[in-house]
């Protein structure tokens, strides 16, 4: 009786196909992980330097006005606007500027807040990517002067 087996060529072709399928499955999984992780990381976020040089709050009815002066120091990075958070002893109140600053630019913003006894103000760079708001790390905190 003659024994029959799988030809060496067929075994080789099957191994190559199985390897290609396995590599494709692994690549798709890794690519999705890398793609979703990089949406949140922008190299400019790490070198961006914003500073609050003045923060004055004028209480009024119905809302008070925070006059905040922000300076952009040297450093790379881009952002779409600045998130400004005004804090008191119990709560945080967010607001935002309308435009980014250029390098070495100083700008003053008047923002409306409904808050009593504000203590500090914090600033965060915000980038819009694919319609999503990505808030960067807090770049500065300043004590608020009540005028």
Q: What's the short story on this structure?
A:
The protein is α+β, with helices and mostly antiparallel strands and 147 residues long. 24% of the residues lie in helices and 39% in strands.
Explain what the structure shows.
With 147 residues, the chain is an alpha+beta fold. The chain has 2 domains: 7-38; 44-146, Immunoglobulin-like (Sandwich). Helix content is 24%, strand content 39%. The chain has 2 helices and 9 strands. Strands 3, 4, 6, 7 and 8 form a 5-stranded antiparallel beta sheet that branches. It has a 4-stranded mixed beta sheet with strand order 5-2-1-9, with no helix packed on it. The N and C termini lie far apart (105 Å).
Instruction: Return the average pLDDT rounded to an integer.
Output: 84
CATH topology of the largest domain: Immunoglobulin-like
**Tally of helical segments:** 2
Computed Rg: 27 Å
- Biggest β-sheet strands, sense, barrel: 5 strands, antiparallel
Q: Any guess at the CATH architecture of the largest domain?
A: Sandwich
Q: Rough shape? A: rod-shaped
User: Span between N and C termini?
Assistant: 105 Å
Helix and strand succession?
Answer: HHEEEEEEEEE
Poorly predicted parts: none
Helix content: 10-25%
Number of domain units: 2
Strand content: 35-45%
Structural class: alpha+beta
**How many strand units?**
9
What's the level 1 CATH class of the largest domain? Mainly Beta
Strand and helix layout:
Layout: H1 8-38, H2 43-47, E1 50-58, E2 64-72, E3 81-87, E4 92-96, E5 106-113, E6 120-129, E7 132-135, E8 140-143, E9 145-146
Parallel strand pairs: 1-9
Antiparallel strand pairs: 1-2, 2-5, 3-4, 3-6, 6-7, 6-8
């Amino acid at each position: 009786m003659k024994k029959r087996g799988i030809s060496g060529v067929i075994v080789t072709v099957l191994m190559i196909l199985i390897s290609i399928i396995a590599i494709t499955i692994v690549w798709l999984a890794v690519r999705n992980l890398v793609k979703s992780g990089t949406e949140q990381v922008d190299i400019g976020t790490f070198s961006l330097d914003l500073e609050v040089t003045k923060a004055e709050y004028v209480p009024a009815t119905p809302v008070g006005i925070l006059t905040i002066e922000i300076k952009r120091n040297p450093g790379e990075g881009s952002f779409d606007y600045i998130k400004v958070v005004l804090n008191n002893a119990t709560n945080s109140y967010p607001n935002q500027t309308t435009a980014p600053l250029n390098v070495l630019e100083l700008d003053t913003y008047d923002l409306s807040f409904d808050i009593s006894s504000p203590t500090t103000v914090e600033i965060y760079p915000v980038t819009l990517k694919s319609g999503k708001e990505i808030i960067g790390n807090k770049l500065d905190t300043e004590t608020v002067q009540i005028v």
